[in-house]
From TrEMBL:
Taxonomic placement: Bacteria, Bacillati, Actinomycetota, Actinomycetes, Glycomycetales
Superkingdom of this protein's organism: Bacteria
InterPro entries according to UniProt: Kinase-like_dom_sf, NH2Glyco/OHUrea_AB-resist_kin
Protein name as annotated: Aminoglycoside phosphotransferase family protein
């Protein structure tokens, strides 16, 4: 099978976010995939996976017949260290990294089979509160396992620091002429600045994950569930809870204090620091949201997290 058509979501997002550089990446994809196929002795084993944002991901087979996944990323500050994390996880709770191409950031990874996403997996009584709590427990258990001290590895990118996110928010939110001060989240920016100060001195540092959610966990044979697509940062344990708690509060079905404590306990992290990271994520979302319905949901999420 030859190079497959780039999924529309990937093409759209890469062009929208990266303009001419994104177009150059798209134009070079066929040549990149062809080179990696030869380098790693691969053959395409199906059409590219859809639903991504800035990665071309396609099933392949290695020369020994083993199933695998070839992932060619549009490399940016958020995903450049993905191979570093996968290398250090060594298959413990996440898909294994078989090969890494420093030139492009591309990876050859374990293919999780059957690969069903946790967020859409039907448990017994899948619409009941108990099934929702089960999903949360599985996710927090995996991300808790993945948090670990960082060991520098030659040839792999360094992890960005979560404190750099705080610095960026400080810069954006303290600018009286900035767009954030004119947007729907303007009334929460002083709170956000205070939260940045509270989180600036983390009690511990290890491999945290910026993009923790139920869609990045899939079913597998080697382990019941494996994390895919990590976005690693040098961060405290509570950092992992930021996006996960924010998204869980935004999308439901659970919310409020019980959700906060469940996530913090599941991650083994401080409750108030988890809440602070989630509030920052929620306020950041509020500053960018558009549309009356989405705005109402974003404001409700921030309000719920403020109450804790």
């Amino acid at each position: 099978m030859r190079f497959g058509v780039v999924p529309s979501s990937v093409r759209r997002d890469v062009l929208a976010w990266h303009g001419s550089a994104g177009q150059a990446w798209l134009d070079g994809l066929p040549k990149t995939v062809w080179r990696l196929k030869r380098l790693w002795s691969l053959r395409i084993d199906g059409p590219p996976y859809g639903g991504g944002s800035h990665s071309y991901v396609v099933p392949v087979r290695r020369d020994n017949g083993e199933q695998a996944v070839l992932k060619v990323i549009y490399r940016d500050g958020e995903n450049a260290a993905e191979p570093t994390a996968l290398h250090q996880y060594a298959g413990d709770g996440a898909v294994r990294l078989h090969e890494y191409d420093p030139e492009t950031g591309a990876m050859l990874m374990e293919r999780a089979v059957p690969g069903n996403r946790l967020k859409s997996t039907r448990f017994f009584g899948h619409r009941t509160p108990e099934a929702g709590w089960r999903r949360i427990g599985i996710a927090c258990g995996l991300y808790r396992r993945l948090w670990r001290p960082v060991a520098a590895v030659e040839g792999f990118p360094e992890l960005p620091a979560a404190t750099e996110m705080l610095d960026q928010w400080r810069s954006e939110y303290s600018d009286p002429q900035g767009t954030a001060r004119r947007g729907p989240g303007a009334g929460r920016l002083d709170l956000a600045l205070d939260l940045c100060d509270r989180l600036s001195d983390p009690p511990e540092l290890g491999i945290g994950n910026r993009d923790t959610h139920l869609g990045n966990i899939v079913s597998a044979e080697r382990e019941p569930w494996l994390v895919i697509d990590p976005k690693p940062y040098l961060a405290e344990r509570a950092f992992d809870g930021g996006y996960f708690l924010f998204m869980s509060q935004l999308l439901g079905p659970h919310s409020g204090t019980e959700l906060l404590h469940s996530v913090a306990e599941g991650l083994g992290a401080d409750v108030e620091r988890v809440r602070a990271w989630a509030l920052l994520r929620a306020i950041d979302h509020l500053t960018e949201v558009e549309g009356e319905r989405d705005l109402a949901a974003a404001e409700a999420t921030v309000a719920a997290l403020e109450l804790g």
